[in-house]
Amino acid sequence: QVLTLSLLMYPMLRSLALQLHSLVTGSYISGTHSIAFINCVNEQVAKDIARAIMDKKLAACVNILPKSSALYFWKGELEESTEILLLVKTRTSKIGELSNYVRSIHPFEIPEIISLPIDQGNPLYLKWIEESVPRD
């Protein structure tokens, strides 16, 4: 029983140890921040959603990428459209809140909201993300 409890606590202990190490050494913990991808139907919707994300302080930065073509299956049919893509840089801990908020304001029935953890990068930029997005 003690062994099981120890194994269950290991990920939490590892996480705390990594955070302590990061504080002491100033090094970045892989996955602390993420980039979320959000698709939008047009540039105005993209700008509105980007501004709303920034107003809620759910990101340090949102890039609005120009039109791209998309092919996808929707209700059994192959569809083709143009979309605007948002790249949202934020804390990984904010992804759930970001996703919930965007779903509440997005015009699509099922908007694309996916994220990838940031493994490494410019330490000064990563620190800027950290300082720009409130912890909770």
UniProtKB/TrEMBL annotation:
One of its GO terms (molecular function) is copper ion binding. One of its GO terms (biological process) is response to metal ion. The keyword Signal applies. SUPFAM superfamilies: GlnB-like (SSF54913). Keywords: Signal. The keyword Signal applies. PANTHER family: CUTA DIVALENT CATION TOLERANCE HOMOLOG-LIKE, DIVALENT CATION TOLERANCE CUTA-RELATED. Homotrimer. This is CUTA protein. It comes from Rhynochetos jubatus (kagu). The gene is Cuta.
